[in-house]
Amino acid sequence: MDYQALYQQKLTTPEQAVKAVKSGDWVDYGWCTNHPVALDRALAARKDELTDVKVRGGVTMWMPEIAKAEDAGDHFTWNSWHCSGVDRKIIGKGMGFFAPMRYSELPRFYRENVTVDVAMIQVTPMDSHGNFSYALAASHLADMLDKAKTIIVEVNQNLPWVYGLTGCEINITDVDYVVEGDNPAVAQLGGGGEPTDVDRAVAKLIVEQIPNGACLQLGIGGMPNTVGSMIAQSDLKDLGVHTEMYVDGFVDMALAGKLTGRNKALDKGRQVYAFAAGTQKLYDYVNRNPAVMAAPVDYTNDVRVLAQLDNFISINNAIDMDLFGQVNAESAGLKHISGTGGQLDFVMGAYLSKGGKSFICMSSTVTGKDGTVKSRIVPTLTPGSIATDPRSCVQYIVTEHGMVNLKGLSTWERAEAIISIADPQFREQLIQDAQKMGIWRRSNK
Predict the structure, then answer these.
(1) Inter-residue long-range contacts of 353-356, CB under 8 Å, 24+ positions, other chains counted
(2) What is the pLDDT of residue 318?
(3) Residues recognised as catalytic
């Protein structure tokens, strides 16, 4: 087959391609760094011709053009599978909503539950076999594109080609339209600045619990990245990677010689992930690198897969938690922050692993804009806050004041353990709250 001839036959302008979108359609922008740029701009230019166009995306790295106009919500509705700061701003405009999920289930959502009229995503240039790589986001894209009635790919020469499992590439024969975009630089996600003393204190407690040969998952945020940096400078060796999101911390570990993956029961020697976002250092590292392997998220986050990886270590953030052991990693009351994502998948999967450990880490306090210091450990979750991890699933909780394991503890033991790692200035009030709730029995008199 002459793939290049087929490419030329399907090549068109962004303006022509987006004519496939009709009022009332469900349009999918893919995930994170794969969101379209030229196609998004062309679709926004058709705003006044369209109504009730529903667009899906997730972990949005830049403000879509379709969301910039004052009356954008009269024409487009944004639906995010996982919220970034940009997604929160779109929701704040009144034209966006969050779609709850366990990230591991997202491919199945597309196979069984949702409609995709038009899908438009950024991809790498086509290879000699007619394939385009999804680059940094295998995620759920294969199932999303299988469901789409019309597929438009926007070629970006700056996207890295990432090797992976089935579900990481699409062939020109399955594409309806090809658009050659402006080749924008790949959006970068910083590490959140220099780690704080609190970050270092929490990370130190966790790193001490990691054995040689462990397999790692890191969530997004300052504390998990600090753990990665500390591992890169530690004496640990022969570590593996099996994670949802690939971040700069893994690159630091790899360049320090910490990641061999030789002890992994699955994908030996490969760093496995569903999507990646970070700095240019990361994008250069993963480009055609056989040490890394992209995979659909229903593989990377499947608890049955994680259970097969011995000494699996899962490290994630939280917004706050209560004295029952419920962890909220999604909202501040009714204000939505992020999403369940893969946190619950990895909390459960790590515990199912032989020698595995799940860590939820957070600072013990947060300082508001008015300077008020509040405890992140609260009697009960604030009304409207989401219990991302139910109390029955949580294992290790870590703050700068210590680490506790909640497995096997009764309600009074949990309350006592959790209060022991709260900021000292709030402990007495938390004890009083626990007494009122009937979950207090001081044992360390």
Answers:
(1) 353/215, 353/306, 353/307, 353/308, 353/309, 353/310, 353/311, 353/312, 354/310, 354/311, 355/211, 355/214, 355/310, 355/311, 355/312, 356/306, 356/309, 356/310, 356/311, 356/312, 356/313, 356/314
(2) 93
(3) 244
Q: How far is the C-alpha of 370 from the C-alpha of 374, rounded, in Å?
A: 11
Structure tokens that stand for 180 in this block: 């050659």
Pairing status of strand 118-123 against strand 150-155: parallel
Sign of CA dihedral 208, 209, 214, 220: negative
pTM above 0.85, yes or no: yes
Coil, strand or helix: which one is 74?
helix
pLDDT in tens, 95-134: 999 999 999 999 999 999 999 999 999 999 999 999 999 9
Quote the CA–CA distance of 409 and 414 in Å, as a whole number.
Answer: 6
Q: pLDDT tens digit string along 381-417?
A: 999 898 999 999 999 999 999 999 999 999 999 999 9
Pairing of strands 215-218, 169-171: unpaired
Q: Which of 61, 344, 328, 311 is nearest to 184 (CA)?
A: 61
Q: Which two tokens stand for residue 434?
A: 């626990």
